[in-house]
Amino acid sequence: MPLRGFPAWGTLLVLALAACAARASEITFELPDNAKQCFYEEIAQGTKCTLEFQVVITGGHYDVDCRLEDPDGTVLYKEMKKQYDSFTFTASRNGTYKFCFSNEFSTFTHKTVYFDFQVGEDPPLFPSENRVTALTQMESACVSIHEALKSVIDYQTHFRLREAQGRSRAEDLNTRVAYWSIGEAIILLVVSIGQVFLLKSFFSDKRTTTTRVGS
Q1: Residue limits of the GOLD domain (predicted)?
Q2: Would residue 18 count as lying in a domain?
Q3: Domain boundary pick from 75, 99, 121
């Protein structure tokens, strides 16, 4: 009997996980020095949105300027030199919302920026419309699994970002240590050669010249 129920369970689970319809933009992009990059999103009034960003992999002090504007140009969010942040708002009107990342304060360091812009909320897996009964045990299990998987995806994303940032810092530290070691080796070689010539000069015979006066 459990084996017969497995295909139905699997089909229901796949359909449930595919029901997520909220729009989300998740992008990682390069932001050169003295540059500014803007993105645009059409949002309906009353829609709840969340903007989350983080400077990863490269970027000096790992900071950027972020600015979010509504269709009228009103600033909803503005932060200067932030490494990461999250901002949630509800659209006050229909139109195109703009959010920009700026690295104009940096003269030679480019940045790698990750952002996740969530528009709207996930619809329920099992809408309550036209339902006269509570969720079945299988439906409740699907909802729980769906929520757990969303949390797993969020954790995996953040862990990947931290891993990439940690790897970049480790590689940068490794490069600096390598250059420092090469510099120490060169200095040690120069000092050793200098000591050899100095010691050689101590033990070398000095020829003196004598001059006879008269006979």
Answers
A1: 36-119
A2: no
A3: 121
**Angle at which helices 2-17 and 137-203 pack, to 10 degrees?**
70
Q: Is residue 144 assigned to a domain?
A: yes
CA 90/CA 86 separation, integer angstroms: 14
CA distance 26 to 21: 15
Prediction pTM value: 0.58
Number of domains making up the chain: 2
Cα angle vertex 159, ends 41, 42, to 5°?
5
Condensed to tens digits (0 to 9), the pLDDT of residues 92-125 reads 899 999 999 998 887 777 888 888 888 887 766 6
Q: Which of 51, 50, 57, 52 is nearest to 29 (CA)?
A: 57
Q: What is the CATH number of the domain that holds 63?
A: 2.60.120.380
| Single residue among 90, 121, 152 that ends a domain in this structure | 121
- What CA–CA distance (Å, rounded) separates 66 from 40? 14
Beta-strand runs (E) in the chain? 23-31, 36-43, 48-56, 64-69, 75-82, 84-90, 95-102, 111-119
The domain in which residue 92 lies consists of 24-121
How many whole angstroms separate alpha carbon 51 and alpha carbon 170? Answer: 29
- Residue 91 vs residue 159, higher pLDDT: 91
Rounded CA-CA distance 198/53 in Å is 61
- The residue with greater pLDDT, 36 or 10, is 36
What's the pLDDT at 133? 64
Beta bridge partners of 54: 84, 114
